[in-house]
Design brief:
Blueprint lengths: L14 E5 L4 E5 L2 E6 L3 E5 L5 E5 L8 E10 L3 E10 L2 E9 L13 E4 L6 E4 L1
Antiparallel strand pairs: 1-4, 2-3, 2-10, 4-5, 5-9, 6-7, 7-8, 8-9
InterPro entries: DUF427, DUF427_sf
Pfam family, one: NTP_transf_9
Length: about 120
């Protein structure tokens, strides 16, 4: 039995997930790692919005799963990937919630990228 706390979004800690009307393109080391017209924008409390991109729109040939993991009481257990390009490795630059909590179920089968660990996350 897990003793991890599960919290639900509220007025004090709002979370919304909405389709992004723009095309989202993520580049690293001059390579396109993700290109999607089906991204979701997750807005959580006072954090910057995060773009969650369907796994089908990500070049997993450039990603390597790592042992790193974190837990968010609002979203669940996160798994991580590093991005390997000719320029090196961006460690734990990508995260995903493979079994997210019900409040954010829409982000299942999506990944998100740390803006500081990629060249760009563009909304076109």
């Amino acid at each position: 039995m897990s003793d991890k706390k599960v919290l639900k979004p509220s007025a004090a800690h709002p979370i919304t997930v909405e389709p992004n009307k723009a095309r989202v393109v993520v580049t690293v080391g001059g390579k396109v790692v993700a290109d999607s017209a089906n991204a979701l924008t997750l807005r959580e409390a006072n954090y910057p919005p995060a773009q969650y991109i369907p796994r089908a729109d990500v070049d997993f040939g450039l990603l390597e799963r790592t042992d790193h993991s974190t837990y968010c009481p609002f979203k669940g257990d996160a798994s991580y990937y590093s991005i390997r390009t000719g320029d090196g490795v961006a460690e734990n630059a990508v995260w995903t919630y493979e079994a997210p909590h019900d409040a954010v179920a829409e982000i299942k089968d999506h990944v998100a990228f740390y803006p500081a660990k990629v060249d760009a996350i563009e909304e076109r």
